[in-house]
Write a structure and sequence with these properties.
By secondary structure, the protein is α/β, with parallel strands linked by helices. The chain has 12 helices and 17 strands. The structure holds thymidine-5'-diphosphate.
Length: about 400
């Protein structure tokens, strides 16, 4: 049974950056639910993938040094530990992971044609299609089976999880390994990062919920790692239950114990979270209103999908945050979805025109603070809402 716990208001498509501000941009209710049986947290309104992930999808994995490093490290680990003949990536984006492998060794799946084109042009076999059973069957017919399937920050975007895992089970070899990584629900609740929820993120996984879903497909998690990426993620290493050669690592039971201790299996934990979110909104607005009343100029740093949730939930317009700076070419000179706030090309010199920067890309805080060291020394201050609204 799905129980409602948080209403984040009306939200536009998080990655739908418009060239002209349109007050009437379509918005959808963003309501969060907890399933008392599967323990899965999800949003209610499912928008068809074709509307969200199209040939103009602006998110690029390679835009951050942090992510590039993380993928490079993982590719070395994959080769060392699993030495797969053939790797398949579901949601290969602009190739941040697959470009670390030989072209003959990897297959990309990326439904956003603009992104798939980037890896295709580099000579990587890329299917510009949605991951489903038809595609899985097609790949199986051509390659027989795949030794390693990887998917980062993608499965949480796909509504029909049963179809996802059925399709994976179809092509993964008997001894094959599936690695998935997605934001951690535990970290989200601990850090009060309610902006991890937007209409693309249909689910936010706990290990408890992942384990429950996998049971239906005779898969099990045999190892996991907590990562810093995306504000706290978990990388799950999954195998078929029938593969007894790989032992289940203690990390799995340890993580489940931590999650149970925090109460991720109980509805009341989510009710408490929803109260904290309401408080966070009030505090953030208080800080921003106070700074504005003193004549400060505020810029947004990193026009993330997460910022779209914050700006729309807290109703922050360009009278409070004048503009956002971002490095992604696809977002520049467009408007932050749902708001009249224009995104400009990141310019370090223009940053000095502002007194405060709202840390939209808080998940890259370290990378950003390193980059802005000299401007921070000259007085630039950041506003963040993680784990609670404050100036840093
Ligand atoms: P990210 O947090 O990965 O994504 P999401 O949209 O899923 O919430 O996006 C980071 C955004 O921040 C991306 O648009 C690039 C931008 N960015 C900068 O503009 N400057 C930076 O130094 C960094 C690290 C990111």
């Amino acid at each position: 049974m799905n129980k409602f716990f948080l209403d984040l208001g009306n939200q536009p498509l998080a990655n739908n950056y418009l060239s002209h501000y349109n007050k009437k941009q379509i918005k959808y209710k963003l309501k969060l639910y907890f399933n008392t049986k599967t323990k899965l947290v999800s949003i209610s309104k499912r928008i068809p993938s074709k509307i969200m992930f199209n040939d103009k999808y602006p998110y690029r994995s390679s835009m951050s040094i942090t992510m590039k490093k993380s993928f490079k490290k993982l590719s070395t680990e994959i080769t060392k530990k699993f030495n797969p003949n053939l790797i398949l990536e579901i949601g290969s984006n602009d190739g941040a992971l697959i470009s670390n492998f030989k072209k003959s060794q990897v297959i990309g799946v990326e439904p956003c044609k603009n992104l798939a084109m980037i890896t295709k042009k580099k000579g990587y076999l890329t299917y510009d299609k949605y991951w489903d059973i038809n595609l899985a069957k097609k790949i199986k017919k051509r390659f027989n089976s795949i030794d390693l399937i990887y998917s980062a920050n993608t499965l949480t975007h796909i509504s029909n999880l049963n179809d996802v895992f059925r399709s994976i089970s179809n092509v993964l070899s008997e001894k094959g390994v599936l690695i998935i990584e997605d934001p951690s629900l535990l970290e989200c609740l601990k850090r009060n990062t309610y902006d991890q929820f937007y209409n693309e993120h249909i689910y936010l996984f706990s290990t408890i919920a992942v384990q429950n879903i996998l049971k239906n497909f005779n898969f099990e998690i045999f190892n996991l790692k907590n990562l810093d990426t995306h504000g706290g993620s978990i990388r799950y290493y999954i195998k078929r239950k029938s593969n007894s050669k790989i032992k289940v690592n203690k990390s799995v039971i340890n993580q489940i114990s931590r999650e149970k201790k925090y109460g991720l299996n109980k509805f009341k934990t989510y009710k408490k979270f929803s109260l904290r979110v309401g408080k966070s909104k009030k505090q953030l607005l208080k800080i921003i209103d106070n700074l504005k009343s003193k004549g400060n100029k505020i810029v947004g740093y990193g026009a993330t999908a997460k910022s779209v949730t914050i700006m729309n939930y807290c109703n922050i317009n360009s009278n409070l945050i004048e503009t956002f700076f971002d490095t992604t070419p696809e977002k520049i000179n467009k408007f932050l979805p749902g708001k009249n706030i224009k995104i400009l090309k990141y310019n370090k010199n223009k940053l000095t025109n502002f007194d405060y920067a709202f840390l939209g890309a808080w998940n890259f805080k370290k990378e950003i603070f390193d980059k802005e060291k000299s401007r921070i020394k000259k007085g630039l201050k950041f506003i963040t809402h993680v784990p609670y609204p404050r100036i840093i």
